[in-house]
Design goal:
By secondary structure, the chain is α/β, with parallel strands linked by helices. It has a single domain, classed as Protocatechuate 4,5-dioxygenase, Chain B, CATH 3.40.830. 36% of the residues lie in helices and 21% in strands. The chain has nine helices and ten strands. Strands 6-3-7-2-8-1-10-9 form an eight-stranded mixed β-sheet, sandwiched between helices. Strands 4-5 form a two-stranded antiparallel ribbon. A hairpin with a 6-residue loop joins strand 9 and strand 10. Helix 3 packs across helix 5, helix 5 packs across helix 9 and helix 6 crosses helix 8. The protein is globular and about 45 Å long.
């Protein structure tokens, strides 16, 4: 059963050995992520499903990692922090099977695909109090938003068919163009997109999220919208309320931490 759902950013600067000199600038995000870690521990979660925008993305199919143990590190950020986590293979296989039966193309990744920082940064906070938790790591595709929403509905169907306590995490940053020296350059659309998306989440206006102006989304330079849409699909049969725990963008990238109460 679904016991926990949240939106998490994934800046490697949240990892102490990488970003400790910048913690004062991201204190709200750190506080919120630690709060999520405490809450997920209280729910005694068995498996964390996490949707990342930085894995092995295919244009026309969702992807699920199928290796028995999932491993990754932060070597690309000159850091030796690493993770090795048991994969909930049966849960991932069930999602794949039902998704394909309902015309949502879903494939297994190669077993040698490493965990990316879109998975590892949220997990650094979410699993530290539950070290034996399993995970399912997946990436979205570039199919349309409706397919992603339907994929989320399928994930919920699978979750509700098991007695395991499941957490579902949408990993993603918002605009990468908030300030002049942002990673993708500056655009006034960045702030507009972030404020609009948060407002629509808080007002539960899902249809408007699914029909966001494509030019605004592209100009904002986001990476988390499809992850969020999958999560919204999974929650679509529940009565819930979105709570923003923090939002900040000191380095030009929007970091949103939010949870869904249901």
């Amino acid at each position: 059963m679904l016991k926990f759902a949240s939106i998490c950013p994934h800046p490697p600067l949240l990892i102490p050995s990488i970003g400790k000199n910048y913690f004062a600038q991201i204190r709200s995000t750190l506080r919120a992520m630690n709060e999520l870690g405490n809450q997920i521990r209280e729910r005694e979660i068995d498996t964390i499903i996490i949707i990342s925008p930085h894995g092995s993305i295919q244009m026309d199919a969702m992807s699920i990692n199928s290796a028995k143990y999932l491993q990754g590190d932060f070597s690309q950020f000159d850091d030796n922090t690493s993770m090795k986590i048991e994969n909930d293979i049966n849960l991932g296989a069930s999602i794949k099977k039902i998704a394909n039966s309902k015309d949502i193309p879903t494939e297994f990744m190669s077993d040698d695909v490493s965990l990316d920082h879109g998975v590892m940064v949220p997990l650094f906070f979410l699993k530290k109090h539950i070290p034996k938790v399993k995970i399912v790591a997946m990436t979205f595709s570039y199919l349309d938003y409706k397919k992603h929403f339907e994929f989320g509905e399928i994930i919920y169907e699978v979750i509700e068919s098991t007695e395991k306590k499941i957490a579902l995490i949408a990993s993603g940053d918002l605009s990468h163009r908030l300030i002049p020296n942002a990673p993708s350059g500056y655009s006034p659309s960045g702030k507009k997109f972030d404020e609009l998306l948060i407002d629509l989440l808080e007002k539960n206006k899902i249809d408007e999220i699914l029909n966001l102006d494509s030019s605004l989304v592209e100009e904002a330079g986001e990476c988390g919208l499809r992850s969020i849409i999958i999560l919204l699909g999974a929650l679509s049969n529940l009565e819930y309320k979105f709570e923003k725990l923090s939002y900040e963008g000191p380095f030009g990238v929007g970091y949103l931490v939010g949870k869904f109460k249901f």
